[in-house]
Amino acid sequence: MKPQAGEVGHPGSHQGHHRERRRGATLPAEIERELFDRRRFPVLGAPGRQMLRWLRGHPNAPVYRQFSGHRLGPAHLAWAHWRQWRVAHAALPPPGPPRWLDSFVRKAWAELPARRRQGGRPPAWADMEPMGRHDLSACLPDHVPRSLVLDELICFTTSGTTGHPLRVPSHPVVAAEYLAYHRRALRQFGIVPHARAGEVGIVLAGYQQRCFTYVSVNPLMGECGLAKLNLMPHEWRHPDDRAAYLDACAPELISGDPVSLAALADLPLGHRPRALLSTSMALSEGLRQRLQARFQAPVLDIYSMNEAGPIGVYREDLQGFALLQPWLYVEILDEQGRPRPEGEPGEIVLSGGFNFCLPLLRYRTGDHARLVHTQCGPVLRDLQGRSPVRFQRADGRWVNNIEITHALKPFDLVRYALHQGMDAAFELRVDGREPLAGIAPRLREALVKPLGLPLALTVVGLGADDKLRQYTSDLPGHAP
User: Fold this and answer.
1) Which of 99, 230, 346, 426 has its CA 20 to 30 A from that of 20?
2) Would you say residue 282 lies in a domain?
3) Coil, strand or helix: which one is 89?
4) pLDDT beneath 50, residues of the chain
5) Residues 323 and 362 in one domain
6) How many CA atoms lie within 13 A of 407 on its CB side?
């Protein structure tokens, strides 16, 4: 699971009436014991208890499978409030290594077993060996500070699209800080979240066969409600309950991935959130425009990963992802670990971050982009998840996968994946709103420009994979 974070709703949403109706419900005693467990909610007031009962006991509520909570006691809650304030008022550093980097490196080097084995003192920055996800997967304790209080740790598991499933250590204060970076992203679109007691601040929407689902409250915002739910029909008593429950919740924000948000757009909702947040997967321009038209609200495409949290938010005026974290140093390196000139493509490498349980020192993300500096700060352009792939045209020339991304950008596709086999033929798998027979000819036409003629291309439907590699090839030489 990933932890997450105006006038609420929209004119006519009757948010005040929702607050009056949220009186809670009578729940079985065993459910209430789990729901209000002090380990999950060390601090829980009357508004929070009322909200939890209401979310869980609503007649249209889904079948919630799990229990969760913020786990913030009084001291940690005060600490979390301070961290929220600090993030809200911090500016991004100027280009180049930030001033905090030297002290961060010295502290991390003293605390991380994997680095201490490389020597008593950290080397020069340019000589520091980058690390990757495989290092974390092979021996995670080597990359966790020795001074951590283990009783306070929480862990969540990533799905491992790179072939390296990973347990990521975290802390309740770290989980709470996601809200601060989502606030920074929302502020760039003129939105300041202010859900309060008696209101639902955010719904985290999934669309998977199996999904971690629960209700909680946010103690940083007056114990407003939070619900993590699964939009798959089998998780509801009746499919119509999905729209009825979401309309009753009237969340200020809805977060999900392109798959779940596309499913959300098909529901007959009357409520419009103030914004939608898309994470985890690439969001097509066509789907973003459809979601914005459907909900009359901005759709934020957030570049995020479990190891580092929210990294950037896409801004059309900047043609890329504006960076969000003041204490995360972003480099672009080549395969040999050498810095790329500004504006040149390479691998995104991270150092620092807000998760003190997993300090990153030149962490290779496997994602690629160009880093440029604008008047609005650093921006990642031409972001591509995982390693770039070249595709071979019929005339023998190679085409970078970024050309495919540009060609397919206008289409309303939830997901797609392009593969080139050993015979050089292409298979494009698509998951979109339009029937395959109608969209396939237009997809073929769009790919003629980057891939040329003759074009051996088959367009098929994309199954219900939760995650997938977007670009793959069997041809030798496909790696740039």
Assistant:
1) 230
2) yes
3) helix
4) 1-20, 160-163, 466
5) yes
6) 20
How far is Cα of residue 445 from the mean position of the Cα atoms in its chain? 32
CA distance 191 to 168: 30
Nearest-10 crossing angle of helices 74-89, 172-187: 30
Residues spanned by the domain of 422: 390-473
Residues 214 and 157 in one domain: no
Main-chain phi, psi angles of 218, to 5 degrees: -105, 105
SS3 459: strand
Whether residues 371 and 428 fall in one domain: no
Beta-carbon contacts of 267 under 8 Å, excluding residues fewer than 6 positions away, are 231, 242, 243, 246
Is residue 26, in this structure, part of any structural domain at all? yes
Residue 171: both structure tokens together: 């802390």
| Cα(138)–Cα(204) distance, integer angstroms | 31
Domain identity same for 196 and 293: yes
CA neighbor of 376 nearest in space, from 191, 188, 193 = 188
CB neighbour class for 139 (10 Å; exposed up to 12, middle 13-18, buried from 19): exposed
Q: DSSP of 145-187, one letter per residue? A: -TT--GGG-EEEE---TTS---EEEE-HHHHHHHHHHHHHHHH
Residues 381/363, Cβ–Cβ less than 8 Å? no
Residue 477 contacts residue 395 (beta carbons within 8 Å): no
Based on the fold, state whether residues 344 and 370 are members of the same structural domain: yes
Euclidean distance between CA atoms 72 and 3, whole angstroms? 13
User: 138 in a domain, yes or no?
Assistant: yes
Distance between CA atoms of 412 and 368, rounded to whole angstroms? 23
* Pair type for strands 275-278 and 253-256: parallel
Q: Which residue has the tokens 């740039």?
A: 480
**Helix/strand/coil for 329:** strand
The per-residue pLDDT for 3 is 38
Question: Does the global pTM surpass 0.70?
Answer: yes
Phi, psi at 145, each rounded to 5°: -55, 140
Last residue of a domain, one of 384, 405, 425: 384
Distance CA 334, CA 329 (A): 16
Give Cα separations from 332 to 104, 255, 274, 340, 381 (angstroms).
19, 29, 34, 6, 12
pLDDT on residue 280: 76
Same domain, 279 and 214: yes
Q: How far is CA 47 from the centre of its chain?
A: 29
Sign of CA dihedral 355, 360, 364, 368: positive
Angstrom distance (rounded) from CA 256 to CA 316: 20
- The string of DSSP letters for 355-368 reads -TTS-EEEEEEEEE
Confidence (pLDDT) at 478: 84
Residue 348 counted as domain residue: yes
Peptide bond preceding 454 in cis form (omega within 30 of 0): yes
CA 297 to chain centre: 19
